[in-house]
Design a protein that fits this description.
The complex is a heterodimer. In chain A, helix 2 runs antiparallel to helix 3, helix 3 runs antiparallel to helix 8 and helix 10 crosses helix 12. In chain A, a hairpin with a 2-residue loop joins strand 3 and strand 4. By secondary structure, chain A is an alpha/beta fold. In chain B, the strands form three sheets. Chain B has a six-stranded mixed sheet with strand order 6-9-10-3-11-12, with helices on both faces. Chain B starts with a strand and ends with a helix. In chain B, a hairpin with a 2-residue loop joins strand 11 and strand 12. Chain B has nine helices and twelve strands. In chain B, helix 2 packs across helix 3 and helix 6 packs parallel to helix 7. Classes of the chains: A alpha/beta, B alpha/beta. At the A-B interface, helix 9 and helix 10 of A face helix 2, strand 7 and helix 3 of B.
Chain lengths: 481, 254
């Protein structure tokens, strides 16, 4: 038994693969947060007056809010006044195409295994890349443009499509929503914007890659996806950060709007630096993600594979407003060493005959704490609402914790809500069985964990699924017991 | 091929095996019989390398290597196969996926190229016939929701795929109806060769009607107290274990 623990120990103490950083000259905001900084950011981005006012309003709202403490996570108070709220890699000038992008930047992405070249087309993925606070490159704009699809950085969208931004910004996650959403609304720097016009099926996966490079910097990106009636888009999000001793704050907001008969699939593989094996450093990941199924028969599906971050606070949610709309949430959250995750979803049933499905698979190893927190709310008008929730926890070793906090709030007697939960341990029996067939313990764990998470991994686009499987195995290396 | 000398093993401080001696040569089938609690399954587990058991004394040499020094996966890769009495369920992992991982890790250890999907499936199709196992069963999660018979058949199928030199069948007959017993035994018999050896651990003689042993050993209180040929198994079936127990126990008191 102790031998197994040892193997787990070795496996789990494997180092973070993306821990490097590149010394780049950066254009940074002065340290700290005040109205001046917000004006500074807005001016830097040459924003219109209305957006500056929107930011300032958010900043005021935020000033009256308190940091939420209800999540099952513990971390030292974040000193926002010691953070830099805007950092952009210095580029000589604005770039129009990839040839003009700073080679040092391209080098960073090469190391991350992201090809920004149009060769990426072979894989059918269009990529927007956000480094620290700004979007540095977006591929395939032209191909997508022909279909009327807009896929660009948020800043660009503010300039090129102000009417769309004005209409949808804050429409799903209002600035008053919560502490971190308000903070993001005040200081957000960049992110991706994606617009799929009516009746268009986006022919390729759209993907944003986030990378924090600079030290002492917060990353506050904002993603907005608008899928008009009868459109379809599959969107991927990936993220990594250098290995640093101090904690870094990441507070993003993602908003999705889906019109009638529209479908949006949003997949995340989150691999922010989780801190070292003693719990030092790592990203604080406080993210608000929400989609609204505004039109009838619309569908929003969240899939997330959460392996990184020191602390995760994240609840991708669906507001099911349209009749017959569908919300889905598929999640695998892995915590190891001293990581803490409090993650789950909210399904708000407003329309009639709305359906939601929640599949959450938590995996805890090391001394980590992993919580599922989910809310299913059926409003008065939501006749025949259906929900199915399944929430499983897998424990590795005897020093970690798994917690489940389901909230169910039903205001319509026709609702049918099911909740299933299981907790299991990776058995020594299972590992020995694999060993006896010639499979190493490390691979046995990977096999067992991937089997456990299969239902969720199956939701990911092919290319991502393979990545995610490897990532799961990597995150858990050294954690069997 | 296998040489067990004065093997002692205990679990949580309680001695179970108290000096096992056994020589197994290539081409032989050895049956280990004995009453409940005599240490039969412990012997199988110790050979396979289950960690709960602590070997306190003795040695086991397998193909010239000290087996006890090897990790369980390396024992498997060297060619030791244990058909489990209670095969373990692994949800979400298909038998096919599981076996492909296993076969390729074993091949890697033996310095062979991994099998690609096509070659692997061809091999699977071929071996499936041996134990009359259905393809559908193999695409399901490993052992999950399998009947007792399906689990045991799957064990023998895995054995066929991994091509071990020493197969240990731990009470493979338990929970099998007569048809399943026949199918499983057929599979085992077809896999026998003059280069491989089989140890059959069983409580009943029934299995030995199908898998004919060259030697039969009776285990009692952690020792082999009697060895013989097939006839010994018949005698045990007829007279039970009491006469052996009495003989051993009276000797001990003297």
């Amino acid at each position: 038994m102790s031998k197994d623990n040892q193997i787990l120990e070795d496996l789990t103490s494997k180092e973070y693969e993306h821990g490097w950083s590149v010394n780049m000259e950066a254009d940074e905001a002065p340290i700290g947060l005040n109205e001046g900084i917000i004006r500074w950011i807005s001016a830097k981005k040459e924003e219109p007056q209305w957006l500056l006012e929107w930011r300032l309003k958010a900043y005021k709202t935020w000033g009256n809010m308190n940091e939420p403490t209800w999540a099952n996570v513990h971390y030292p108070k974040i000193d926002l006044q010691s953070l830099i709220f805007y950092s952009a890699p210095k580029q000589a000038k604005k770039t129009k195409n990839l040839d003009e992008v700073d080679p040092q930047l391209l080098e960073i992405y090469k190391r991350l295994g992201i090809s920004l070249n149009e060769q990426k087309r072979l894989e059918g993925v269009a990529v927007d890349v956000v480094l620290d606070s700004v979007s540095v490159a977006t591929t395939f704009k032209d191909t997508l443009g022909k279909l009327g699809i807009i896929f660009c950085s948020f800043s660009e969208a503010v300039k090129e499509h102000p009417e769309l931004i004005k209409k949808y910004l804050g429409s799903v996650v209002p600035m008053t929503d919560n502490y971190y959403a308000a903070l993001n609304s005040a200081v957000f720097s960049d992110g991706s914007f994606c617009y799929i016009p009516k009746g268009v099926r986006c022919p390729m996966e759209l993907s944003t890659y986030f990378r924090i490079n600079a030290a002492n910097t917060g990353q506050f990106e904002r993603t907005l996806i608008v899928a008009e009636d009868e459109s379809y888009v599959s969107y991927l999000e990936g993220c990594t950060a250098p290995q640093r001793d101090e904690n870094q704050l990441h507070a993003a907001v993602v908003e999705i709007y889906a019109g009638a008969h529209a479908e949006v699939k949003y997949s995340t593989v989150q691999n922010w630096f989780p801190g070292d094996k003693n719990g030092k450093g790592g990203i604080f990941n406080f993210v608000t993600k929400r989609g609204i199924c505004a039109g009838d028969h619309s569908k929003i599906s969240w899939t997330q594979v959460e392996t990184g971050s020191a602390v995760t606070w994240k609840y991708p949610s669906c507001i099911l407003k349209g009749d017959y709309s569908i919300g889905e949430f598929y999640s695998v959250a892995v915590t190891n060493n001293y990581q803490q995750a409090d993650t789950g979803t909210k399904m708000i049933h407003i329309g009639k005959n709305t359906k939601s499905r929640i599949v959450s698979k938590g995996i805890s190893a090391g001394k980590s704490q992993n919580s599922y927190r989910g809310q299913v709310q059926v409003m008065k008008r939501a006749t025949n609402a259906r929900n199915f929730s399944q929430c499983d926890s897998l424990l590795m070793g005897d020093r970690c914790g798994a917690h489940t906090f389901p909230y169910i709030d039903i205001n319509n007697p026709t609702a049918k809500v099911e909740h299933e939960a299981t907790t299991s341990k990776i058995g020594e029996d299972q590992i020995f069985y694999c060993n006896q067939r010639g499979i190493s313990t490390e691979d046995a764990v990977a096999l067992i964990v991937n089997g456990y998470a299969k239902e969720v991994l199956n939701q990911l686009p092919m290319e991502f699924a393979v990545e995610a499987q490897k990532l799961l195995a990597l995150t858990l290396e050294g954690s069997v017991g | 091929m296998l040489s067990i000398k004065n093997l002692h093993a205990s679990i949580e401080g309680t001695p179970i095996l108290r000096g096992i001696n056994l020589e197994v040569k290539a081409g032989e089938v050895h049956a280990i019989m004995g009453p409940n609690g005599s240490g039969k399954s412990t012997l199988a587990s110790v050979l396979a390398g289950r960690e709960e058991y602590e070997v306190t004394k003795g040695e086991v040499i397998f193909k010239g290597k000290n087996l006890l020094d090897l990790a369980p996966e390396d024992r498997a890769r060297e060619g030791v196969f244990l058909a489990f009495q209670y095969p373990v369920e692994i949800p979400g992992v298909s038998s096919t996926n599981f076996l492909r991982t296993a076969v390729n890790q074993v091949r890697e250890y033996r310095g062979q190229e991994p099998l690609d999907a096509v070659k692997f499936l061809t091999m699977m199709k071929e071996k499936m016939k041996l134990v009359e196992i259905d393809q559908k069963l193999l695409s399901r999660s490993l052992n999950e929701g399998f009947s007792g018979g399906e689990k045991k058949r799957n064990e023998i199928f895995q054995m066929a795929m991994l091509e071990p030199t020493l197969s240990i069948l731990d009470e493979t007959d338990s929970g099998l109806d007569i048809d399943a017993l026949r199918i499983v035994s057929n599979g085992v018999n077809q896999l026998k060769s003059d280069k491989t050896a089989t140890i059959v651990v069983t409580h009943y003689q029934r299995l030995l009607d199908y898998i004919i042993p060259d030697f039969v050993h009776v285990l009692y209180k952690g020792r082999i107290v009697k060895s013989g040929t097939k006839e010994l198994a018949m005698e045990l079936e007829e007279k039970g274990y009491d006469w052996i127990k009495e003989a051993v126990d009276s000797e001990a008191t003297v």
